[in-house]
Amino acid sequence: MALIISLFYGLATIISNLSLQYRRILDTGLSARWFALPVVAWVVVIFYAIFQNGLLLLALAVVELVLLVINLAGTDRFSHKR
User: Fold this and answer.
1) What is the 8-class DSSP label of residue 74?
2) Cβ atoms within 10 Å, residue 44
3) What tens digit of pLDDT does each residue of 35-72 get?
4) 64 with 41: CB under 8 angstroms?
5) Where are the alpha helices (DSSP H) in 1-82?
6) Is 82 a residue whose pLDDT tops 60?
7) By three-state DSSP, how is residue 41 classified?
8) Degrees to nearest 5, angle at CA 65 with 40 and 34
């Protein structure tokens, strides 16, 4: 039951989560091309659910770690305007 509720919650909030991630990437001074990372993360999650491959899990961990660093960085941290 918890898995079904979690699935519905994830699907209901995917648009808002991606828009917040996009805003955070721009706030840190990175270009909009970095927004490909959250999209790649979702694709890797889908492929991992299908294939159950350990290499896909490692790739997801790396992508999520990079996104964590971006989310924790200060405003204009990666900006070239310093």
Assistant:
1) P
2) 20
3) 888 888 888 888 888 888 888 888 888 888 888 888 88
4) yes
5) 2-12, 14-27, 36-51, 54-72
6) no
7) helix
8) 45
